[in-house]
Give the backbone structure.
Amino acid sequence: MTKTRIAILGGGLSGIVTAFYLSAPEQRRKYDITIYQLGWRLGGKCATGRNPDHGERVQEHGLHVFMGAYQNAFHMVQEAYGEAQNLPFETWDKAFTQQTTLTLMDRRNGEYEPWPFGVPVMPGTPGITKAPDIWGRIAEVLEWIESEMLGTHGMTFSGHPDLSSLPWWRRMIVRLLLGIEHLVAEAASVLIRDALGLVQTLVEDPAKHGAHHHNLLADAAAGLRSWIQRRARPLLEKDADLRHFWIFVDLGLSSLIGSLRDGLLFDPEANLERVNHLDYRDWLRSHGADEITLDSSLIRSLYDLIFAYPQGDWTKPGEVEAGTMVVSLMNTATYQGAIIWKFNSATGDAIVQPIYEVLKQRGVKVEFFHRVDRLVPSADGKQIESVELGRQVELLGGDYDPLRQLKSGQYVWPDRPRFEQIKDGDKLKASGADLESHWTEWEDALPPLTLTAGDDYDALVLAIPPAAHPVICRDLIAQKQEWARFTQTIRSTATQNLQTWMDKDETELGWTLPTLVGAFDKVNLNTWCDISEVLATEEWPKDAGICTEQIMCGPLPCKDSIPPSTDHEYPKRQLKQVEELAERFIADQGERFWSKGFGPGAPQGGVIRSTYVRANIDPSERYTLTVRNSTRHRMTASGSTYSNLYLTGDWIQNGQNLGSFEASTISGMLASHAISKFPTDIRGVDAEALTQAEYPAKPSQARGAFVKHPGMATFPGRITLDDTTMWAFLLDADYDLMAGYCRRMFDEPSGGEVRVRPMSSKMMMTIVDIGTGRFVDEPEMGWSPERELTFWIPAVRVEARGGKEVATHFDMVMPYLVLDNPVAIASGREIFGYAKQKGWITLPDDEGNSARDLNVDLFATKSFGKTSEQARHRLLTLGHQGEKESAALSGISGFGDAVRSLYHHIGKSGDGWHNSLKLDFEILGDALHRRVPQLFLKQFRDVHDGDRACYQAITEAIGEVTRFDAFPRLTTFDMTLEHLDSSPVAKDFGIAPQQRLHGVRLEYDMTILPGKVLWQA
Ligand SMILES: Cc1cc2nc3c(=O)[nH]c(=O)nc-3n(C[C@H](O)[C@H](O)[C@H](O)COP(=O)(O)OP(=O)(O)OC[C@H]3O[C@@H](n4cnc5c(N)ncnc54)[C@H](O)[C@@H]3O)c2cc1C
């Protein structure tokens, strides 16, 4: 049988995993596979080398670990260990040490405060047992909170116990429980149990979850968050345990609330793009996370873990796509065993070598010292016609054997070529040339090699990352826009590494806390870890006195563009920079970690016996970033647009889209699947979808970018409304008329998917005077004042349960909205579907308004008729009758108080809450937390048939109140509501057109947040 010839360009993890699955027994030797790799070793960003001049020490690119959620990476390593000969460890599990404790460097008032904590070990073994789904994990976490906060521990510790022996979170919970009243604890317990009950009903079949379930859960989580926040916030400054507890809880709950509200739990694939334009911190902020949390070492450590600092600038807050990060954290939460698994040998020796052994056994060829210089596309852009390669050295004979055996017998990757197998190896050695460097001065020993489509390969797999594409894929970039755009949007950063070998152990050196330490703020090496496990595989002479080994890494400042290869001095300059930074780090931070090694009176000499620094600056060594809005430009394994070119690497669409071993493994599996349909099962991702040419597949009605009209005809999204004064009134109205309106607007168009009911027979009428309205995202557009008259129906969304309608969400519905500002009329309509009308509003303090009346005129038709002119007509007159102090109002100090008092007022007065609805206080959820949800029917008329909508959706906007004051005075007005045929407000809702009203005056600032679509036709 003729085999299909596959050339894999690049032997990093993705490239070798592709080969691993293409050469698997299931493929029945269908493929003839060759990997082309520059230099002397495989592994790319995780390649390592043993240095024989320094005790066979392990030299890494940086700290490398597996996370306990790396289902595919673990599985692949387990398979490799099952098949390979010459293994570094007998079994795969011996290659790892599970890390269950961490220390974060918390910064308070300019000082670092170590924050040690343990992460629970979860049941199961990654790669072997099925990972729990995220719902199962949420339920487990809620159960944990319930039992720890409100269950047995609360009772056990309810005396005055000695807390010193307890872990921080237990101390904190006990303190919380001792400090709060029984009744309040009960309130939280109810909230948690409700949420738990809901989650437990959901776990069974996530596919059947409805958005309303998730909103309910989000409301429960928001209630719980604010309950804890109210109690914990005032104590945080003084109590570090409490602050840490709050940060965990706030991060967990805010992530949950945001994921539920933005549909990331419901259908992440479909909703990622809605949030990927935001940075992760900004997304958390938009869902109410506390600034203390956002500025905490916990959040910083997440950015540090993925080097999320464009241009390596660790002094900035960093940037990562919100949606991608959230999905990744959800995956991480499903870890099994420990959350982090360290390697017990060099990364290359622990995982790359076993894979290499398997590839050799299966007949995969690896051409070392082959540098890919250029991919040449055919003129018609259909395929890659040829590949040009530089041949760096001439071998003395046969195949290159890249591994060296240690005295222990272990096969390892050396830190330099095996010169003895190379013709003129001595010359190469003497030159000190780095064959992995883009800037090397070494001249190729052999003439270039050209691989030609059809003669030498049937398919190519490009496993070299985008930072190298401007050189090797220059013709593809010139030929196709997709490649140009792709290369520009996938960014990367250089990184740096420092390893130290010490003659004392950590405790002797003065560090007694967990030895994986992260989140140094604004420090070049922001993560350090003790990796002394690997010492057992190093071969230091006894008198070297080495006891411990540490590794520290972080981003390295760099430009986005790569200097030309002729700048031969560039690596030296960068290495010098890293050496200086490392020295400074040890000088500034050494004493912090190892007070007995570096502090005053510390031994002179000794302590650090060996150091290794590395600048990871080569195009393909740079860490792949996931900056905002980049995932959607990633190509899939089969999306290269050239029929014989497949792609793999942590930079393709792989469902994870962050630089990691798991993303690289999945990418390798996807490339194999794209070529061969094997492997069929890639855990946690949809292999079929991700190997389509386009992902996500374009919806039939593709959504393009919004096209701005010139001038101020169209407007950006979010707005802020500052210095706003509001007069608010309650009106008696006809419940059935309001219910009919809600049905027409929401129930009927959505076919009952969104059902809305007025809460009571009260309507609200407000008149506002906005001092400054401006667009948040385009502040340079300036500002404008605005006046509005609004008739509101306080309403609830309902769903049927047990034959009854049960309210699930509170929302304000606005049947009439009159305002005087054309910008606000257009922008609100365009985005949310506000039905705004043009009017003129006179306020009590207006010049010349000596009567202090409130009047509203409307552009309207007074009486319908062919000869009627649409013009300015009076709609509302509020004749000022006087003011008096109000005891009820003087008790209102915040927006939540105002909402609460309104709730009780409506509940008590008239016929109260509509009796078909079971409403309790918690339904106000959002509003109690200063977020006023507003519901709209957004629609556009069809071009052909003006009676039909060509677009129809039910949208929700949230107005977040950022400042609030109430005046403790009631103002009395006599109201006249005129009848206008085009706007018959009184008739529409059964409002008595003439009545005496009492109004309150409020002041506030508000931001209209990005909204969401609850239903769309
Ligand atoms: C410092 C650092 C620490 C990290 N820590 C972790 C961690 O703890 N956990 C984790 O999950 N992930 C970690 N990562 C990420 C992880 O290492 C990468 O996601 C993964 O190794 C990328 O594999 P890849 O195959 O996609 O790319 P690469 O490893 O970049 O592979 C590309 C390959 O192509 C070769 N190549 C480049 N140019 C050419 C050419 N012209 N011709 C021929 N060959 C060429 C390279 O030498 C390399 O072998 C870390 C990354 C870095 C940089």
